Amino acid sequence: MLSLSKATTIIDAALEKARAENFAPLAVAVLDAGGHLVAYKREDGAGIVRFDIAYGKAWGSLGMGFGSRELTERAEKNPTFIGVLSTVSGGRMVPSPGGVLIQDDSCTVVGAVGISGDIGGNDEICAVAGIEAAGFAAATGVPK
Amino acid sequence: MLSLSKATTIIDAALEKARAENFAPLAVAVLDAGGHLVAYKREDGAGIVRFDIAYGKAWGSLGMGFGSRELTERAEKNPTFIGVLSTVSGGRMVPSPGGVLIQDDSCTVVGAVGISGDIGGNDEICAVAGIEAAGFAAATGVPK
Amino acid sequence: MLSLSKATTIIDAALEKARAENFAPLAVAVLDAGGHLVAYKREDGAGIVRFDIAYGKAWGSLGMGFGSRELTERAEKNPTFIGVLSTVSGGRMVPSPGGVLIQDDSCTVVGAVGISGDIGGNDEICAVAGIEAAGFAAATGVPK
Amino acid sequence: MLSLSKATTIIDAALEKARAENFAPLAVAVLDAGGHLVAYKREDGAGIVRFDIAYGKAWGSLGMGFGSRELTERAEKNPTFIGVLSTVSGGRMVPSPGGVLIQDDSCTVVGAVGISGDIGGNDEICAVAGIEAAGFAAATGVPK
Predict the structure, then answer these.
(1) Which of B109, B124, D35, D41 has the fewest CB within 10 Å, making it most exposed?
(2) Residue B1 pLDDT more than 90?
């Protein structure tokens, strides 16, 4: 289970990383294993669609069982299928890095982080930093 | 403008109040004046529809221009119309106390808080506590 | 056909009436006979759901073939059916006065006005004022 | 804040430009910073999907934080991702020029204009003309 306490640690550490790196303003969503929002913060200046993108990166990672970097790579090979998956999921699958699975000590997926605001690679750096600060393992692609 | 810093203060003070009163686990959403999510926390044990209810209480307050306690009273007088409003807004209007407008010193509405988890009256107590802790005025009904 | 020029006259005259009567801030939508938006103005201070309500009053009037005052009366007699109609139309039917059909000299319905912001009766007064200022006939219920 | 008065000036100046240039009939939408419609006009002869395109150009500009010309360029490089963004946003992101951010003297984004009817480049010319006539700065891409 992913507690609110852990989710808050993830978000705050992710945003601390973003400010240290001087990234663009971010939106950070933490979802439980059922795809439901546990906690969310949107930095001042982030656009109004950032929630939907952050949520979609996290939800899609849970939906497929791997981080959104893997989905990004599959999208390059098979764009049509990813377009269909996007529609199937009601827009909750975003093929861009920044959706990262959260695994506990027993390799169980307990949730996912989704971040949007900077380029996908930078969003992902912050997601990993947040997950690791909370004592979890981060899976940006297919989990071990 | 409603900063992330202020929104975080609102949520944390609302949850502090909830724990002091021993209320049921809460979901707390803070929206900006345009109805977009700025910050959110869901306490451990709150059910999976709590986000949508909390969000709808806040969004509906912004949509109509008064706190959801006023909408609750109107719903008792005219249930059909409130049912229609729910559909009009895509489910984003919830006629139960706990949606409270946030006003700054010049009486401008800068956002809204929506809380769900306990009975509406208790949700509202926490919303007001959070808003006031952040130095804003809370409007549970028609604002002054 | 309802020209942009006529639609603009309707909106501006409706808002002139609202200011003369000191009504609450209004949202005014003018739709053509196909239910498509021709022109719209939202006064400063009107809430964020007012577009959807104004549009729904006008669309529903065109949908049923009578002004929304008639829909309001039917809603009192048969609330369940109105709830279903609301869902059928995707929330585009609002049983409250303020949706008024626009008829030309030959009694053809060329469009509809929908207004939201004050109580339904006041919204309707402004809609009628706007329609008549543009040289059309206004039908608040079943047209002649 | 973007007042109705300023929004009306933007639309009327945009349409004046369109008539001076003899462009195709246009639909012009002005949104506030939260993505809500403030004013709209559709010239006679513009098709029935023009509202949705104009609205989507403006909404998507606010959603991403840059004018739709930038989104157009990104779409050429990564069409799959833009298709997904379209779904994520419920169709409210249109990668074609004509969505332009409105900035005030302090570089704050106070809203966006979206225009559809002619080719994107011509739509954009009218959006910029309207914004500047109202005393604001126009950002067709990433704002300064």
Answers:
(1) B109
(2) no
